[in-house]
Amino acid sequence: MTCRLRRWLLSLAVVVGLTPAAPPVEEAKTVRPVDTGGAAKPLAEMGPRLDPVPRPDPTTIDAALRRAIAFLVQSQNKNGSWGSPEIRGGVEIYAPVPGAHQAFQAAVSALAISALTEAEEVPALAADGAELRRAIDRGAAWLETHLPKVRRANGDALYNCWSHAYGIQALVRIYVRAGDPGHRRRLATLIQEQIDYLRRYESVDKGWGYYDFRAQTQRPASDSTSFLTAAILVALWEAHGIGIDVPEQLVQGAVASVQRQRLPDFSYLYGEYLKYVPQHGINRPGGSLGRTQACNLALRLWGDEAVTDAIVKNWLNRLFARNGWLDMARKTTIPHESHFAVAGYFFYFGHYYAGLLIHELPAAERPLYQDHLATLLLRLQSKDGSWWDYPLYNYHHAYGTAFGIMTLLRCRR
Predict the structure, then answer these.
(1) Residue 30 has what pLDDT?
(2) Would you state the pLDDT for residue 40?
(3) 262 DSSP assignment
């Protein structure tokens, strides 16, 4: 298949389903028009306002978390990992073997480990502490052995960038949890190696993408995507927080890439290759709902003063008031087939970073958003305790549930 054909197929997947439909009627129950007080507001601060929703019962939140934790523990593979290449619904998205699936499994396992280590810190959720610790220890042992082996699958597939991002976050949590100084030194070395891989797979234009349909060069010629670059910046921030040396040049290039993709209203382009069509559906606010939270968080963490509290609150308001644009794509099988070219896997990714972003606000302003977020997650949890948004081989239950746990944990107050 020629590079031109691959790019055409990718663009075809992106443009499917661009005609907006009216948001679900129930959204209007909690949305009020913006009151500007007669004064003009910056474009980035214009949007809906939310009324409070009833605070979810804290015991209900903890019960949902315990079910989700039990699901992850019980679904762990015998070797300590999570997920598999087995098809469990959906379509076979492009995933050259074995590298793509090694990357998927490492990233998903890292997310599961991060979720369980965060849950372990909450006494109310660790009723069976021994079983939870055993799952974390087995997962950590698998990750520490297999993550260093993850590489680029082939010339055009760089799913490994997701593995490096979420691998760093998991290793940071394992590092904090570890008591042995020797183990901590080994973990610090592993984190540094993952950062070195990110330097190796950085786009020539800075930032990171997960496809190189341009030239498939040794230094990827990929167009960076705003959301992957943002996720990596958040991971690098966490590594920096435990004293790992993060190259300033690497961060500056990634920050500049995300900033280049930011529109005046703080929507973010899906990728830099769409800069000449900024009003393409996927770049508009309805298409950016699942990306803006991650991008705003990443830029704010690394010192971008343009991401003010007002911007953060406006886009959290949009996330809940316009949530139907994401929800209509949830559990669909073809990427980008929904309105604004939203794909199902935008959903829990976007809400996870929203949960992190809420905690960037002053404590007094968090409950409104925590209650909206908890209400949404409680409604969507499956009977088996899992969350999932897109049928990705047999990885979706694990990554969706991990995102769900880490998001709901940030709704406890």
Answers:
(1) 42
(2) 55
(3) B
pLDDT score recorded for residue 18:
29
Fold designation for 44-409: Glycosyltransferase (1.50.10)
Rounded distance between C-alpha atoms, residue 111 and residue 189, angstroms: 20
Q: What are phi and psi of 308, to 5 degrees?
A: -80, 170
d(CA 266, CA 263): 5
Q: Contact, 119 vs 136, CB < 8 A?
A: no
pLDDT of residue 224: 97
Q: Which one, of 257, 273, 272, 287, lies nearest residue 350 by Cα?
A: 287
* Cα 365 from Cα 66, distance rounded (Å): 27
| Residues 279-337 pLDDT 10s | 999 999 999 999 999 999 999 999 999 999 999 999 999 999 999 999 999 999 999 99
Boundaries of every domain in the chain: 44-409
d(CA 351, CA 408): 10
The partner residues of 311 in beta bridges, in order of sequence, read none
Among 291, 266, 260, residue whose Cα is nearest residue 353: 291
Residues 36-85: tens digit of each pLDDT: 344 456 777 888 989 999 999 999 999 999 999 999 999 999 999 999 99
Q: Would you state the structure tokens that stand for residue 95, as one six-digit string?
A: 């995933």
Complete DSSP assignment for 173-213 = HHHHH---HHHHHHHHHHHHHHHHHHHHT--TTSS--SB--
Residues in the chain with pLDDT values less than 50? 1-39
Helices (H), 302-346: 309-321, 324-327
Spatial neighbors of 91 by CB under 8 A, at least 6 apart, are: 333, 334
Yes or no: say if 159 and 210 are a contact pair by the CB < 8 Å rule. yes
pLDDT at 128: 67
- CA separation for the pair 71, 326 (Å, rounded): 25
* Structural contact between residues 318 and 289, judged by C-beta atoms closer than 8 angstroms: yes
Instruction: Summarize the chain as % helix, strand, coil (round to 5).
Output: 60, 0, 40
Reduced to 3 states, what is the DSSP secondary structure of residue 56? coil
Contact between 297 and 360 under an 8 Å Cβ cutoff? The reply is: yes
